[in-house]
Design brief:
Shape: elongated
CATH superfamily of the largest domain: Zn peptidases
Helix content: 25-40%
Number of helices: 13
CATH architecture of the largest domain: 3-Layer(aba) Sandwich
Number of domains: 2
Strand order of the largest sheet: 1-10-12-11-13-16-14-15
CATH topology of the largest domain: Aminopeptidase
Number of strands: 16
Strand content: 15-25%
Length: 472
């Protein structure tokens, strides 16, 4: 038994070079990657076109289709071994004419406030909805008030993102349920509509949209739902303390239409030694219809494309097949991620690693990994190679929504982690525009992703945890 284990461990750990030689070789290769990305990068130019020439890319929209065609053409220009489109049916929700809302305290006093319909919201009646307002601090607060106080009113969810939580994604996660499920829950108590405080630490005039659900509520029971800017949320909360009888008027013009065909965009460099082992890098091509989707997730799209371009430019021939997947419909359905995973399962493809960039184009800090103990121990040995680039975060945790459906007992999933302190200033709002992209930060992120993919491709992952000792 000991002889068996020795031979197995030696077989997966002896690369033909000393550890010092291998580390030096990897360090030099990674330096080349960063130099190429920073001196001759393409990601920023791609994103400029995606953001300014195409714009917002809501699933099912004309712009989404234009983005599919543009990115497919650009991948073909790279001379990859394969480029193709994967058909996927996606929801088509249309915002319609710009929303309008105001708060009224008496017959002659009203103040306009800024709102944006949540993605998937039903419209108000043609003349809008006007009602009293009840402020709550989250879904759990609804039961405290009950149907007697909520029925016929507009529920105002005003739980803010906590300022004392350093990881802004954690703060977002603590209160996103009021946006996602608030309308469905408030409708059970007879509410006539909901408005939700925008999910950002910043006080500004940009309402932040996002996905929502009515769960299994029949269409006749669904109520309109909108985000309210943080400045107007502060105003409304203060006003209600002074005048609880104030009324809110809102008009939403959205429509839910039949599903339409769209596509994941996929490009591949076929592996030279292990072509049936796949590594995936990707981001989501769709965005919300506010702003132009530069950070969410145009940045992740072009960074992922840049990974394959950098390998081509550097003449690196991967051992394993590397795919870039530009997923459609992450924002309001995850249809693209699920469709890709379905294809992988049907074709019995062996995916060993997937990396997603969906945290904005800000300065990269590292990665989070969904991995087994032995796999993460292997990954941690690579951390020192990234420290010269101020990449220090190698944590275990979540990865990305689109690659999540690929999870099984062997694949390693990872997410690029960028500095998150400014991300929610832009997320899902009119403020997510190309002017807020820093070219250098975007390129550093692309180089960081490429470097990790290089290491995964070169070494693969050991299978120690999957080996059982023979029974005596």
């Amino acid at each position: 038994m000991k002889k068996f284990l020795f031979l197995f461990l030696f077989g997966i750990t002896a690369p033909g070079f000393s550890q010092e030689q291998t580390s030096t070789e990897d360090s030099l290769e990674i330096r080349k990657i960063y130099d190429m990305a920073l001196l001759n990068g393409q990601a920023y130019n791609w994103l400029e076109h995606l953001s300014l020439k195409i714009g917002p890319r809501l699933s099912g929209s004309l712009n989404a289709q234009r983005a599919v065609e543009y990115t497919r053409n650009e991948l073909e220009e790279l001379g990859l071994d394969k480029v193709w489109l994967q058909s996927v049916m996606v929801p088509k929700w249309v915002r319609g004419a710009k929303e309008r809302a105001y708060v009224q305290t008496d017959a002659t006093t009203r103040r306009e406030i800024k709102i944006a319909a949540l993605g998937g919201s039903v419209s108000t009646p043609a003349n809008g909805t006007k009602a009293g307002v009840i402020e709550v601090q989250g879904i759990e607060d609804l039961a405290r008030y009950g149907e007697k106080e909520i029925k016929g009113k507009i529920v105002f969810f005003n739980r803010p993102m906590r300022a004392d939580v350093i990881n802004t994604f954690e703060a977002y996660g603590e209160c996103v349920d009021q946006r996602y499920a608030g309308a469905a829950e408030a409708a059970k108590y007879g509410a006539t509509g909901v408005i939700v405080r925008s999910l950002t630490h910043r006080l500004d005039d940009f309402p932040h949209t996002g996905s929502m659900t009515y769960n299994d509520l029949p269409v006749s029971k669904r109520i309109p739902a909108a985000a309210i800017s943080t400045n107007d949320a502060e105003y409304l909360s203060s006003l209600l303390k002074l005048d609880p009888t104030a009324e809110l008027y809102m008009k939403i013009n959205s429509r839910q239409m039949e599903d339409v065909e769209s596509f994941n965009v996929i490009g591949e460099i076929t592996g030279s030694e292990f072509p049936n082992e796949y590594i995936v890098v990707g981001g989501h091509l769709d965005s919300w219809d506010l702003g132009d989707g530069s950070h969410d997730d145009g940045a992740g799209v072009v960074q992922s494309m840049e990974v394959l371009r950098l390998f081509r430019e550097l003449g690196y021939k991967p051992k394993r097949s590397i795919r870039v997947v530009l997923f459609m419909n992450e924002e309001n359905g995850l249809r693209g991620g699920n469709k890709y995973a379905e294809m992988v399962k049907q074709n019995k493809e062996n995916h060993i690693f997937a990396l997603e960039s969906d945290a904005g184009g800000f300065t990269p800090r590292g990665f989070s990994f969904d991995a087994g103990d032995s796999q993460f121990a292997q990954i941690e040995k690579w951390k020192s190679l990234f420290e010269p680039y101020l990449i220090h975060q190698f944590d275990r945790g979540g990865s990305g929504a689109d690659i999540g459906p690929l999870k099984n007992n062997s694949i390693v999933l990872a997410g690029l982690r960028a500095d998150s302190q400014r991300y929610f200033d832009h997320h899902h709002s009119d403020n997510d525009t190309f002017e807020h992209i820093n070219k250098r930060e975007l390129e550093l992120g692309a180089a960081t992703m490429t470097s990790l993919i290089y290491l995964v491709d070169k070494y693969g992952f050991n299978r120690i945890r999957n080996v059982e000792e023979p029974k005596m």
